[in-house]
Amino acid sequence: MQQVAASTAFIGSALPLRRAPSNRAGRLPRASLVCRAQKQDGQTGGKRLVASSAATLDAPVEEGYQSVWTASYDFDNESPELTKSWKKTMKVAVTGAAGQISNHLLFMLASGEVFGRDQPIQLQLLGSERSREALEGVAMELEDSLYPLLREVQLGIDPRQVFEGADWALLIGAKPRGPGMERKDLLDINGQIFAEQGRALNDVASRDCKMLVVGNPCNTNALIGMANAPDLPKRNWHALTRLDENRAKCQLALKSGKFYTSVTNMTIWGNHSTTQVPDFVNAKIGGKRVPAVVKDVQWLKEEFTPKVANRGGALIKKWGRSSAASTAVSIADHLRSLYTPTPPGDCFSTGVYTEGNPYGVDEDLIFSMPCRSDGDGDYEIIDDFVIDDWLQAKIKETEEELLKERDCVGHLIPGATRAVCMITEDTMLPGEA
Amino acid sequence: MQQVAASTAFIGSALPLRRAPSNRAGRLPRASLVCRAQKQDGQTGGKRLVASSAATLDAPVEEGYQSVWTASYDFDNESPELTKSWKKTMKVAVTGAAGQISNHLLFMLASGEVFGRDQPIQLQLLGSERSREALEGVAMELEDSLYPLLREVQLGIDPRQVFEGADWALLIGAKPRGPGMERKDLLDINGQIFAEQGRALNDVASRDCKMLVVGNPCNTNALIGMANAPDLPKRNWHALTRLDENRAKCQLALKSGKFYTSVTNMTIWGNHSTTQVPDFVNAKIGGKRVPAVVKDVQWLKEEFTPKVANRGGALIKKWGRSSAASTAVSIADHLRSLYTPTPPGDCFSTGVYTEGNPYGVDEDLIFSMPCRSDGDGDYEIIDDFVIDDWLQAKIKETEEELLKERDCVGHLIPGATRAVCMITEDTMLPGEA
Question: Which PANTHER family does the entry link to (chains A, B) (predicted)?
């Protein structure tokens, strides 16, 4: 078996290619610099330049160099005993790859702790022209970390190229809200990004590509992406609510004075926003329903949810930046939950498409629900959660918010009836715009 | 068994204590806010304030609040099957804990991937007054990541308090070189920090505490720390050269077109600086000596070493900040190497005290050498490396640099004969000052 241990590519826009200086080529006998044109689908007209990685990464990058740039190490496998149990390489595309969350996540992915020690991966990293050198820096650090499972790294700025063949797309990048920007402006500006990325995934990703949207507003961004990727399974879209779930478990553990691991069956319902519903009705502590353990109903109803929803804002206030590390941990948790059989009586939260959902939620939303998995990467919505009146009212509230968000992005959803954007209030998670 | 799942403390200077508002106390029944005075050793007169964690971390911190601050969750263990195989909690002190390297490392430590899934740990984090809120942010993110093995987190700014009872001290924090600062100034300013930390470790750490110095100039900082900690075993001091080793392995893998894992017996000799000696004479690729595989002697002698030594600088140039993630990975690698039996015929690099070394290096330096471990946390220097003339000359060069560094810090080494500081050239690793 030949192994591609790691490789770096720059996949870029339709600007004219510049060939990297040929003297770089001589440095690596196997991963030599190759410039080859690759016909794209016409929309971008991009080309692909295959370049050596380590040889070029520490060399100065040419000004304006902005196209598919691949450095490939295609190595002799001297360790057949290491690789004989390895699965087929998984292609994982990550957007916002030069950002803080990715800077934690990529190393977790490459180490094998997320997808398993027998799962080689190829990272396909999307950045922006501005972040290109930072992306190259990340690729160099991944190299220096000697992860045998990391077989290739590609870098680019055109989603249509970066997403090619992806088995997973972790959509982390989104524009933060600028000064004076209203929430509906943010919905629009990020919605456009996710519409483009949805189309790109539809055109070039694996036909069973799974998508996890982290960039906010993540539920509605996922809805837009999904609507623009009609050929991909709708159930494959996820919006991240695992950080909320983790925070909710943490708060219940603290409140009850029990191990984190004692808190099970914890669901976040609805939107990853301040209207989210951390469900203490169905959650359990030490196998007992939460209200039987935490007898402080007022705390559960009035303090618990804001504690969870405002945790990110509290963190921002502490140190002026968002919770990159714990977000990355929660993304890893999310992915692991899909590749590990869910223990009986437990669940995990993920924002998924609501079509056919058993809880009467509008059937065209991305809505966080209690799910379980057989460990095959797929999931099912658990259908026997108790919805009492309190929970029902809260779920209604977060559903209504998502319906309003959907109304604001009708112009980004092919075939949608245009509605009027009625969002005036600010329900973004503080600090997580 | 009761478990302390995680707890946060602020251990500070000798400023007058301010009691946290008592209304915080009511929020957590078990992890309640306690203010207790604790007699310190007289040098600092510090006191210890035990405070609840989650309850206070998201509450505004009082101005000037600057003393031992502990938030403790002392939880019922509902998972005896989880913990019955757990070892005794290891206390790991980390300096520069609010910095980028730590921001990666702490999550690796807490997850169990470094010390093992049966090794609960207590993190004792040293920051500065300026970084206090950032430290609290890190503690909050660690909470939200739900690591069962993480049993306590303490935060503080006084090493004499933070290092109390530490089994490991990971000394990451150091002052970077400011504009116009000469290398000898840097040696002095950081040397003072490490002299203080050495004294603190000597007074309060576990009698078998192990120290890993990451803050540069790490070899000489370790020497200073060691000299100021006469009651701790000198062999327990390490200076990090594992990132250099990893980079060297990466470059040899690239050059030879082989798996990373094919490169073994890779040693860095000497100083973590541009005079370091990545040893291609003894290193092997696929079981063969490197020169038998990479037949380009000129590359090995003239390009390989600068490629390794200048990698950090190349990264800085790429994205304007240092290689925090891969440094954290290499710290984790370093620690794992001490707790995993070294495979026969392999080694790892660490800067250790040279007393009694088999290679004729001056016996009062911290010098990177080929080492092996039985996996018990201790190590031995491998004594059968071939030192040819080329290697001998290179080792001499890095030794001479370390002798010069030692001459410049005689005022920080108790009992040292004063020598004249002769350092004029700049041998810092680029970007890693």
Answer: MALATE DEHYDROGENASE
Asked whether the beta carbons of A55 and A31 are under 8 A apart, the reply is yes
Q: CATH 3.90.110.10 occupies which residues in chain A? A: 242-412
Class of domain A2-16+28-239 (CATH, top level): alpha beta
Of A79, A250, A330, Cβ closest to residue B261: A79
- For the stretch B312-322, pLDDT in tens is 888 888 877 78
Identify which of B148, B255, B311 has the shortest CB distance to residue A144.
Answer: B311
Cα maximum dimension of chain A: 72
Instruction: List Cβ<8 Å contacts ≥24 apart for A17-23.
Output: A17/A47, A17/A49, A17/A67, A18/A62, A18/A64, A18/A65, A18/A67, A19/A49, A20/A49, A20/A51, A20/A56, A20/A62, A20/A65, A20/A69, A21/A62
Q: pTM here?
A: 0.87
* Complex ipTM value: 0.86
Listed in order, strand segments (DSSP E) in A214-265 are 237-239, 263-264
Residue ranges matching CATH 3.90.110.10 in chain B: 242-402
Q: Which of A269, A268, A303, A286 is nearest to B54 (CA)?
A: A303
CATH code for the part of the protein at B242-402: 3.90.110.10
Q: Does B144 touch chain A (CB under 8 A)?
A: yes
- DSSP string covering B1-69: -EEEEEEE-EE--SSPP-PPPGGGGGG-SSS--EEE-----SSS---EEE--HHHHHTSPPPTT--SEE
To test the contact with chain B by mutation, choose from A141, A155, A310 the residue with the greatest count of B C-beta atoms within 10 A, namely: A141
Radius of gyration of chain B (CA): 22
Nearest-Cα distance to chain B for A360, in Å, is: 31
Catalytic residue among A104, A238, A272, A334: A272
Q: Alpha helix (H) ranges present in B257-323?
A: 290-293, 297-298, 305-309, 311-319
**pLDDT tens for each residue of B41-91:** 333 222 233 333 333 343 333 333 344 455 555 566 667 788 889 999 999
| DSSP code at position A353 | E
Half-sphere exposure of A374 (CA within 13 A, CB side): 3
**Chain-chain contact of A259 with B3 (C-beta, under 8 angstroms):** yes
Distance of CA A407 to the CA centre of its chain: 24
Pinpoint the residues of chain A covered by CATH 3.40.50.720.
2-16+28-239
Active site residue A272: yes
Q: Does domain B2-239 have CATH number 3.40.50.720?
A: yes
Paired strand residues for A71: A8
Q: For residue A74, is pLDDT > 70?
A: no
pLDDT at position B423 is 85
- The per-residue b/e assignment along B131-157, b for 16 or more CB within 10 angstroms, e otherwise, is bbbbbbbbbbbbbbbbbbbbbbbbbbb
Nearest to B29 among A103, A144, A257 (CB): A257
B251 touches chain A (CB under 8 A): yes
The CATH classification of domain A242-412, taken from the options 3.90.226.10, 3.90.110.10, 3.90.1150.10, 3.40.50.920: 3.90.110.10
Q: For residue B95, count CB atoms less than 10 angstroms from its CB and return exposed for 0-12, middle for 13-18, buried for 19 or more.
A: buried
Domain with CATH 3.40.50.720 in chain B: 2-239
Q: Which of residues 275-334 of B touch A (CB under 8 A)?
A: 285-286, 307, 310-311, 314-315, 318-319, 323, 325-326, 329-330
Amino acid type, B350: T
